[in-house]
Backbone:
């Protein structure tokens, strides 16, 4: 080791020289390699999940709010809707609230991204020998895991309110992964918007959009309850497709068509927003 | 600094004598908030949010309520109006928290300003926002088929009562904002009560739709009572029997919130 030269001049105590000599030699892998990308993504993912877990407001917004809203919807509207439509309302409402949890989570996460940018953490990451793509993929992985957790919690809250799972375990696994599929597309979109717009604008923009989407989908009330001119829009918006797929996987009904539409929406959103998200992320890290 | 003592005493001699006027201060501080609202797009949000709420409540539930024989446009507008007032409450809580957080409130306390002037200016600016929102809301209501059928006197009573509810809620929110100094946490903390009191209300769906165990709460909680009073006023059925519970609630909340808001605003921290 080259440090041997300096030790002769500085003359440190024997013990220090001995420890230094025993340090393992680290062979750094190139940042761009696939295995480094994979490991770094996992590290970023773990970091974000721990940040969210330790922040009570994230937990409250992504878990407590959807659960309480589901309870409200069931108590206030459940019986009216069931009586008016003949279909138990809880299946649509539970599916709706899993998606709302995914969307709220994406917004909270985008605000966290803003904070990390403002605090300089992002640019700090960019100066370190870590895989640059892992910042984005780690975030998306963390989003997916968070959605998985909130989905399971919302569905478990729905059970005492009258929600029944199918018997087939594979169907239930598919059921839980529909919100993840939907949420990934939404998260890419929110990330792209978060890198472009300012924080306050982002909240009011997505807040108004979320309110509208939350009331105009097939989970709130079935599609035929909406005015005729609105039915096509309501039935084909991304949340409705995911909700219909989840209804099919829990209450029964067509699955293939709404599921394909959900996939189409997700692929479409990723196709449109992935490039702005990547560019925006890079720009945010370099200029902050 | 070579300015000598005699020069300092004559330095301000030519300036006019200061006569602090609480009214002028109130006007200046209120104007400041209202100008910000007008130029930063907050008034646009105050006009658009009631539209979103009206459309979001009315269109999906119209059919479900028609099955139960209810004209939902007439039924739901009072709760939309109250929801609008809750929005003002939310904005005012944010404003008070922001002024306390950034130190403006403390700074105003050190200046020769009437101690209640900052509070009054926030409340009055909130009233401006409420009036704008209320006009917009009633307009949207007329678009979906809501009508005042009790004459203009009761229509005015409707607006007056709605604004009174807004002011009382704003007082409470202002106190919370001044005390917590945390706009973010406050908006999260207020979302849940707005959701619970707004939705678990007989102004949103009829009492018979609720499960039996929750009906006593849904029927008697203040927002339901306010909604019923407003709907009576809109239909021209205003009566003492249907109003006194609302007035007791409103008076009770005012007795609670007014001293709290004053204390939170004038105390030195």
Residues:
């Amino acid at each position: 080791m080259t440090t041997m030269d300096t030790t002769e001049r500085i003359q440190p105590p024997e013990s220090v020289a001995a420890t230094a000599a025993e340090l393992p030699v680290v062979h750094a892998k190139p940042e761009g390699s696939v295995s480094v990308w994979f490991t770094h993504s996992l590290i970023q993912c773990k970091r974000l999940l721990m940040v969210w877990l330790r922040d009570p407001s994230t937990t409250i917004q992504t878990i407590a709010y959807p659960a309480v809203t589901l309870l409200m919807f069931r108590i206030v509207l459940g019986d009216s809707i069931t009586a008016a439509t003949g279909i138990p309302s809880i299946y649509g409402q539970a599916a709706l609230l899993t998606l709302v949890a995914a969307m709220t989570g994406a917004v909270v996460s985008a605000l966290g991204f803003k904070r990390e940018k403002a605090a300089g953490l992002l640019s700090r990451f960019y100066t370190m020998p870590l895989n640059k793509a892992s910042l984005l993929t780690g975030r998306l992985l963390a989003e997916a895991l968070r959605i998985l957790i909130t989905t399971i919690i919302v569905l478990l809250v729905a059970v005492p309110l009258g929600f029944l799972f199918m018997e087939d375990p594979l169907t239930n696994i598919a059921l839980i992964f529909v919100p993840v599929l939907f949420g990934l597309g939404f998260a890419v979109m929110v990330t792209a918007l978060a890198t472009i717009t300012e924080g306050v604008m982002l909240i009011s923009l997505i807040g108004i959009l979320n309110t509208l989407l939350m009331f105009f989908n097939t989970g709130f009330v079935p599609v035929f309850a909406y005015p005729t001119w609105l039915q096509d829009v309501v039935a084909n918006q991304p949340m409705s497709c995911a909700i219909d797929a989840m209804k099919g996987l829990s209450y029964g009904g067509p699955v293939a068509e709404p599921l394909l539409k959900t996939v189409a929406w997700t692929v479409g959103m990723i196709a449109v927003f992935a490039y702005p998200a990547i560019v925006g992320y890079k720009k945010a890290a370099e200029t902050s | 600094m070579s300015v000598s003592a005699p020069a300092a005493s004559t330095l301000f001699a030519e300036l006019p004598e200061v006569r602090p006027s609480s009214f002028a201060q109130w006007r200046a501080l209120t104007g400041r908030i209202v100008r910000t609202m007008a130029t930063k797009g907050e008034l646009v949000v105050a006009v658009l949010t009631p539209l979103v709420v009206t459309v979001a409540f009315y269109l999906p539930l119209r059919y479900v309520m028609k099955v139960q024989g209810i004209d939902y446009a007439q039924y739901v507008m009072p709760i939309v109006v109250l929801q609008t007032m809750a929005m003002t409450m939310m904005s005012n809580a944010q404003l008070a928290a922001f002024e306390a957080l950034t130190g403006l409130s403390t700074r105003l306390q050190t200046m020769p300003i009437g101690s209640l002037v900052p509070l009054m200016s926030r409340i009055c600016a909130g009233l401006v926002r409420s009036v704008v929102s209320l006009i917009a809301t009633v307009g949207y209501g007329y678009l979906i088929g809501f009508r005042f059928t009790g004459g203009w006197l009761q229509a005015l009573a409707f607006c007056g009562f709605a604004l009174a509810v807004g002011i009382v809620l704003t007082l409470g929110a202002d106190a919370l904002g001044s005390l917590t100094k945390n706009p973010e946490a406050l908006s999260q903390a207020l979302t849940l009560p707005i959701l619970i009191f707004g939705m678990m209300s007989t102004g949103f769906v009829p009492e018979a739709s609720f499960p039996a165990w929750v009906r006593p709460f849904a029927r008697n909680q203040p927002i339901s009572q306010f909604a019923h009073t407003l709907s009576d006023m809109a239909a021209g059925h205003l009566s003492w029997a249907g109003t006194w519970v609302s007035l007791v609630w409103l008076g009770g909340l005012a007795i609670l919130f007014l001293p709290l808001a004053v204390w939170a605003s004038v105390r030195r921290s």
Observations:
- Chain B has a mean pLDDT of 87.
